[in-house]
Amino acid sequence: MLALLDASAVRRWCSAAVDGLDARRGEIDDLNVFPIADGDTGTNLALTMHGAADAVAADRSGTVSGVLAAMAKGALLGALGNSGVIVAQIISGLAEACDGAVEADGTLLVKGLRLATDAAYAAVAEPVEGTMLSVVRGSAEAAEELGDSPELAAVVSAAAAGATAALAGTPQQLAVLAEAGVVDAGGCGLVIVLDALAAVITGQGTLGPAQLSPARNRQALEMVRESGSPEFGYEVQYLLHASESALPPLKAVLAELGDSLVVVGTGDGPFNVHVHVNDVGAAIEAGIEAGRPHRITVTRFADQVAGQSSETSRSGIALVAVAPGDGLAELFRSEGVSVVEGGPSAGSAPSAAQVLAEILQTGAAQVILLPNAPAVRAVAESAAAQAREQGVSVAVVPTKSPVQGLAAVAVHDRTRRFEDNVIALAEAAAATRFAEVTIAVGDSITYAGRCSAGDVLGLIDGEVVEIGADVAGVGISLVRRLVAAGGELVTVLSGADPGSEAAAQAVHTYLRSRHPLVEVSVFVGGQPEFPLLIGVE
Length: 537
What we know:
With 537 residues, the protein is an alpha/beta fold. Helices cover 50% and strands 18% of the residues.
């Protein structure tokens, strides 16, 4: 039994919460009737906590403050659905209470539960009782009843018991739950998360399988919408980089467009925005007016309800690619590829939870995954392993650059067997040599000699081979090296930096004049950090 919550205990709690949600994901999905009967609350909560766990695994701080902050940020960035956004805000409340603390005692955790409750209610435009809001409030109130200076073990036990009791009362607070014969799905997931904390601190959890029961009235599962409104058919969610002052106008616009509005985050973001609407374009446009939305997802509820019968309804082959730029994302999507935005060169590598969510969202029985960067390979393998556990066959083709990914996509044939496609894509990627142009951020020694901050570096297969003063010149030197070894097709992707497109055109002009038989394609990739990406096949 622990007297204090330290960094190690938070790490174990996060891991235990992931395991608990993974184990009972299907059961929670079956409880899901509110705010929309789409059978995905368990999945959304599990993926949100996987995002938190990825962030905790990458965190190197040794304090409860640091690890909780990482956990909160990971949950915020990986939050899916109404329930995921709310649980991310709950974790943020706990992190706020422990800000600056090396360890947390019972008193600090009681404060955290109250802040978590207040933050969760504040995040929801129209709070509804009988949901996970009631459950987190039940946990906070039970902990507060312990009085002054409570022991940590007593606090977590009371919080878990209070949450469980509140969960049992949700059907009396929300008629649709009573009609379906279930407790609230999101609240049930929160109980599992709090029970995992109690188990880490005391060595014993309190939640048994009796708290989870499948819905009895399936008609209720097909008809319910948030606040009883059946008219909103789409869920829109995105991360938003904006100033905090831009949020009130954004919330006002989104509240007019629909319901189930939740906006979470602090400072200058990112903020996680979730809303149910009919006018998808207007909801996204509101985000553009407020700041910079990205990782935009749109879900049509009718498709989810129709497709929730079982995992056996999956069929066909899908491709999923990681794309570190808007132009690259559009290039992949134009070829019918599902895209996970981000990557090391975009400054925000995707988590395994985000990649897994995209795999599952394809609805395919077999998925070929293209990481498009060595640093994303481990994330892709982790997501693939989790997807296999859920009945999806996933093969990771180890593409090291987006240009290799594009070459692989070009040979995909939907009429071929899955295994044959995997081989064909892997061969196409391996046959594509790739080069990158980037800017040195500091002094260093490379294989090509000493470089200084601001120098233009040219890399082939990840190794520095050119040091120069301008992007176009280095890019031309790189293609000269690559084409000298043979090649029939050159792909050039310009980056996000000003002048990148001009440099790409300079490379194109050089190739047309010196190698007229080589086919050249130039695209706007939009990737940060690399003004030029070059592939030669």
